[in-house]
């Protein structure tokens, strides 16, 4: 050992750690007295486990008779054991960057080994598992779009919003006052069967899955609700309430029927209406009572009242008049108009036509919107000829004249402007309007998709 500048020169030391298993006989405990010297054991270094090398490796020395060397080995052994213990403690505490403490098992003995990595070396014998969460499927719903549109000047500024559905299942709202068109996707599972769409101030009812109705709100949400028969929603106009039949499947036509009032969520309000056997509710009166067909006559039936509306086939009703088709004793059939305040009925002479009969638009899938104009002077009807062809048109309740609008290309629904001047409908030119002042029909939009359903709500709702 040489000394330079008062410091000992670094030495190369190899430390041998052995387990408590005899490498010769494989027995645990102390080595047997007959153990051979290390220099007589062939390839002993190849069978050592748990070797720890400090500094650079050197050839081992097997001379154990030198006392100073024995002291050096003893000191080095203690230093090695302390180093192993320190490494084990550091590993228990989380270790340091660049170190890993795996577990090795040899001949039934477990020895903790600390491996120090040099720069550029990889961690040997360590397997890692990375779990990546599976991505969830997402549904992207296109946001509504609002665009300015070009309207026919005659209807620009009318306080009315026309609601429709296009052939590509887009829900559209045309605000005539602001001359804008709002488009958004139709809610999933919404059915556009004729006559099922009801338009409220901030919601729309469609036919839904499993024989129920789908209520779509303007905020983009929707829910499936039992609002009664989805093909004939009995909506109380201007409200969020409906009438729903109770127990029809048990009683049928032979027993009295009961209807309960419900809200948009299908919750009952406590109000009920009973109708006699063989009766059926077809629509709702302006005051919220049921319009019921019993024995060939129509009645307005409330919780505790009943009023005859008109005999025959009811074509339209408002709070002012009731319009019906009826026949006399000689089977001459025409249109009668009844004043609901006085009960006086008068016939429209021009409506007597043996080649044509008039039917309500709701019978042909029209929406349950009022067929009678707001001023009570016109009524939307279906004119059916003996040959079977049918035409959407308007009957003038003063003269009995029939104004032909044409064969409808979709459900024969008519939406009236608030003043009754314009009748909006779906015709050969798409969304059309009939102007009672000029007696002309014209397309509302210069360019538009073909609509397959039509409804209306006040402008700005």
Task: Determine the strand fraction and express it as a percent band.
Answer: 35-45%
Approximate helicity band:
under 10%
Q: What's the β-strand tally? A: 37
Number of helices: 3
Cα-based radius of gyration, to the nearest Å: 47 Å
Instruction: Give the biggest sheet.
Output: 5 strands, antiparallel
Broad structural category: mainly beta
Strand order of the largest sheet: 9-12-11-10-37
* Shape verdict: globular
Q: How widely separated are the two ends?
A: 101 Å
Stretches where pLDDT is under 50 for at least 5 consecutive residues are 1-65, 93-113, 130-140
The chain-level mean pLDDT equals 76
In words, what does this structure look like?
With 461 residues, the chain is mainly beta. Among the domains are: 114 residues, no CATH class; 80 residues. The strands form eleven sheets. The protein has a five-stranded antiparallel β-sheet with strand order 9-12-11-10-37, with no helix packed on it. Strands 13-14-15-16 form a four-stranded antiparallel β-sheet, with no helix packed on it. The chain is globular, with a radius of gyration of 47 Å. The N terminus is likely disordered.
Summary tags:
461 residues, five-stranded antiparallel sheet, 3 helices, mainly beta, 7% helix, 39% strand
Write the SSE topology.
Elements: E1 3-4, E2 7-8, E3 13-15, H1 44-47, E4 52-54, H2 67-92, E5 99-100, E6 103-106, E7 109-112, E8 115-116, E9 145-148, E10 160-166, E11 170-175, E12 180-185, E13 198-199, E14 203-207, E15 213-217, E16 222-225, E17 234-235, E18 241-246, H3 248-251, E19 257-263, E20 268-275, E21 280-284, E22 290-294, E23 297-301, E24 306-311, E25 313-317, E26 321-327, E27 333-339, E28 345-348, E29 356-359, E30 378-385, E31 390-396, E32 402-406, E33 415-416, E34 422-427, E35 430-435, E36 440-443, E37 451-458
């Amino acid at each position: 050992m040489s000394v330079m500048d008062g410091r000992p020169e670094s030495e190369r030391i190899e430390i041998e750690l052995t387990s408590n298993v005899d490498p010769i006989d494989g027995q645990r405990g102390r080595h047997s007295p007959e153990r051979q010297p290390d220099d007589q054991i062939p390839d002993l270094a190849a069978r050592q486990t748990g070797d720890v090398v400090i500094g650079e490796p050197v050839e081992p020395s097997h001379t154990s008779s030198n006392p100073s060397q024995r002291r050096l080995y003893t000191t080095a052994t203690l230093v090695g054991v302390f180093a192993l213990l320190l490494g084990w403690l550091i590993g228990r505490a989380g270790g340091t960057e660049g170190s890993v403490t795996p577990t090795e098992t040899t001949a039934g003995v477990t020895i903790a080994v600390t491996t120090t990595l040099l720069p550029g070396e990889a961690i040997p014998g360590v397997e890692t598992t990375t779990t990546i969460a599976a991505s969830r499927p997402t549904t992207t719903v296109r946001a509504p779009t609002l665009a300015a549109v070009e309207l026919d000047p005659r209807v620009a500024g009318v306080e009315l919003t026309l609601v429709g559905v296009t052939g590509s299942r887009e829900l559209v709202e045309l605000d005539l006052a602001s001359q804008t068109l709002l488009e958004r996707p139709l809610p999933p599972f919404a059915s556009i069967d004729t006559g099922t769409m009801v338009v409220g101030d901030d919601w729309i009812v469609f036919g839904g899955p499993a024989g129920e109705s789908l209520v779509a709100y303007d905020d983009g949400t929707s829910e499936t609700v039992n609002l009664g028969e989805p093909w004939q929603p009995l909506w109380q106009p201007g409200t969020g309430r409906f009438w729903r039949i109770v127990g029809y499947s048990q009683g049928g036509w032979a027993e009295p029927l009961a209807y309960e009032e419900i809200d948009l969520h299908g919750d009952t309000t406590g109000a009920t209406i009973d109708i006699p056997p063989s009766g059926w509710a077809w629509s709702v009166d302006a005051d919220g009572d049921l319009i019921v067909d019993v024995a060939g006559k129509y009645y307005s039936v409330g919780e505790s009242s009943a009023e005859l509306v008109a005999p025959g086939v009811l074509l339209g009703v408002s709070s002012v008049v009731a319009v019906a088709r009826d026949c006399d004793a000689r089977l001459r059939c025409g249109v009668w108009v009844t004043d609901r305040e006085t009960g006086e009925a008068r016939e429209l002479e021009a409506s007597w036509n043996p080649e044509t009969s008039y039917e309500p638009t709701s019978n042909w899938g029209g929406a349950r919107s009022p067929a009678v104009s707001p001023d009570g002077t016109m009524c939307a009807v279906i004119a059916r000829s003996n040959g079977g062809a049918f035409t959407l048109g308007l009957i003038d309740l003063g003269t009995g004249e029939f104004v032909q609008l044409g064969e409808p290309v979709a459900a024969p629904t008519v939406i009236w402007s608030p003043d009754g001047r314009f009748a909006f409908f779906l015709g050969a030119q798409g969304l059309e309007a009939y102007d009672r002042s000029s007696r002309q029909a014209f397309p509302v939009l210069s360019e538009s998709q073909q609509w397959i359903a039509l409804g209306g709500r006040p402008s700005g709702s």
